Amino acid sequence: MFDTMTFTKILGGFAGAFLVFLLGKFAAETIYHAEAGGDHDGEVVQGYMIDTGEDESAEPEEAAVPFEEVYAMADAGRGERIFNQCRACHALEDGVNGAGPYLYNVVGRDVGTANGYAYSGALSEAADVWTPENLNGFLENPQGYAPGTSMGYSGLKDVEDRANLIAYLDSVGS
């Protein structure tokens, strides 16, 4: 069925298609990019730019709202839904530890004082008391706030979610 000529034709077809692909890539790079001269020897600069009418550098920066203001308007009901992410490792019952310490009455509690839980020691170096501000920093980026902590969670990026969660935790046991 397959003789030498058929195999040669198939291989020639693939080689021809690859050659067309390489020539198309070369033509596109020649049209849209050029090597810069002068002070930019060896650098590749964009040769053709489509003006979209937007100035990328003119993006206004959003003013960061202080956490205290966000926390004052926090909704504990929404925080309860966010706590579902924490349930895998933490419990809300007093004295019931899981992979992480229990969070009953955690807001205002001294750091590292959950009964029966062996802490890594990194938390006590980061803060003394779990104030809403300390919890906010820790929940945003646990590894960045307390390097060496055993908490493997990557953190909550949204400040409103963190404030709602802290308001919920403050309502539990307080």
Account of the protein in words:
The chain starts with a helix and ends with a helix. The chain is 42% helix and 3% strand. It has a two-stranded antiparallel sheet. It has 2 domains: 4-54, no CATH class; 67-171, Cytochrome c-like domain (Cytochrome Bc1 Complex, Chain D, domain 2, Orthogonal Bundle), CATH 1.10.760.10. It is elongated and about 85 Å long. With 174 residues, the chain is mainly alpha-helical. α3 (76-82) packs across α7 (159-171) and α5 (132-140) packs across α7. The model has no long low-confidence stretch (mean pLDDT 83). It has helices at residues 4-32, 67-72, 76-82, 122-126, 132-140, 142-145, 159-171, and strands spanning 33-35, 44-46.
Which features does this protein show?
174 residues; mainly alpha; Cytochrome Bc1 Complex, Chain D, domain 2; 2 domains; 7 helices; 2 strands; 42% helix; 3% strand
